[in-house]
Write a structure and sequence with these properties.
The chain is 95% helix and 0% strand.
Length: 106
């Protein structure tokens, strides 16, 4: 009877140990999985942020380039306009001088 009781007790202890071990393994697996999921989520979040930053940076660079180009074009147009106005003024002045010379003006 004592031998049977010891064997029964041993069997129960082994079963309990297996159940405890299984529970611990499942708990550890769950924790590992949770850590991996958090790490993956952080990496995805970082990748999305970097992607968004690149898109924003590209858009800013394009906008700055457009603004710079627009300013250069305006500057060129003003210089061209000024040059044309000066040329027209010289030609008009030359014509006036020619008319004055023809009619005895100074």
């Amino acid at each position: 009877n004592q031998e049977q009781a010891r064997m029964k007790n041993k069997a129960q202890n082994q079963e309990q140990a297996r159940m405890n071990n299984t529970a611990q393994s499942q708990e550890q697996a769950g924790m590992n999985n949770n850590v991996q999921n958090q790490k993956k989520a952080r990496m995805n979040y970082m990748a999305e942020n970097q992607g968004q930053a690149r898109i924003n940076n590209k858009a800013q660079n394009q906008e700055q380039a457009r603004m710079k180009n627009k300013a250069q074009n305006q500057e060129q147009a003003e210089m061209n306009n000024k040059a044309q106005s000066q040329e027209q003024a010289r030609m008009k002045n030359k014509e006036s001088s020619g008319i004055n010379a023809e009619y005895g003006g100074t």
